Amino acid sequence: MATSGTVRQLLVWIRQNILKERPELFVQGDDVRPGILVLINDADWELMGQLDYQLQDKDHVVFISTLHGG
Predict the structure, then answer these.
(1) CA distances from 18 to 42, 44, 48, 49, 61 (A)
(2) At 27, is the secondary structure helix, strand, or coil?
(3) What's residue 3's pLDDT?
């Protein structure tokens, strides 16, 4: 993203600019799909305010899928 914003805005940007196939595996509505762990600076995003967290310069956002085949 060119300017800082919220995690919600980051998800919109990712969906529009990075996800080419099957975005439903990553996002559900305006949120991440259940089973995707989101870390902001190595902390669970639930502790940071989730979608409303205001991203700062140098923030490190990681998405980890806990979903797998059986």
Answers:
(1) 22, 23, 24, 24, 15
(2) strand
(3) 64
Rounded CA-CA distance 59/41 in Å is 6
Place of tokens 């995003």: 45
- What is the residue type of 19? L
DSSP string, 41-63: TTEEGGGTTGGG-B--TT--EEE
pTM, to two decimals: 0.83
Tokens of 55: 């991203």
The single residue listed with the structure tokens 């919109």 is 12
From the list 50, 54, 30, the residue with the least C-alpha distance to 38 is 50
Query: How is residue 29 annotated by DSSP?
Result: T
